[in-house]
Design goal:
By secondary structure, the chain is an all-alpha fold. The longest helix has 52 residues. The mean pLDDT is 85.
């Protein structure tokens, strides 16, 4: 009992740790299930964190793709609007036999 109360030097302590005394000791053998449970929980935590990071990166990539496609759709829409303006349509019809009507197609009468 006098040996357990004796203070060990740091070198002796680390020699015992590196020698595996604590891995074969009574404390570890009594708490082996608890230690294994902690190891499993740490592995689950690490894998869950990795999964969450991958999901966040995929979400950011999808958001960027969506914004890019919205900008492209806006650009195409403005180009189409520009092509269908009346003045542009009239300019494109100069070589055609179709002409812009001078007389209105209907008359609104006042009662």
């Amino acid at each position: 009992m006098a040996n357990k109360n004796k203070q060990k030097s740091p070198v002796e302590y680390w020699r015992e740790v590196m020698g595996g005394k604590y891995l074969t000791g009574d404390w570890l053998q009594r708490n082996l299930k608890f230690v294994l449970m902690l190891i499993v929980m740490v592995l689950i935590y690490i894998s869950d964190r990795y999964y969450c990071q991958q999901a966040m990166l995929e979400g950011k990539q999808l958001t960027d793709t969506l914004m890019d496609r919205r900008y492209k759709a806006l650009t195409v829409r403005s180009q189409l609007l520009e092509q269908t303006l009346r003045s542009n349509v009239e300019e494109n019809l100069t070589d055609s036999t179709i002409r812009v009507a001078v007389v209105p197609s209907f008359v609104v009468e006042d009662n």
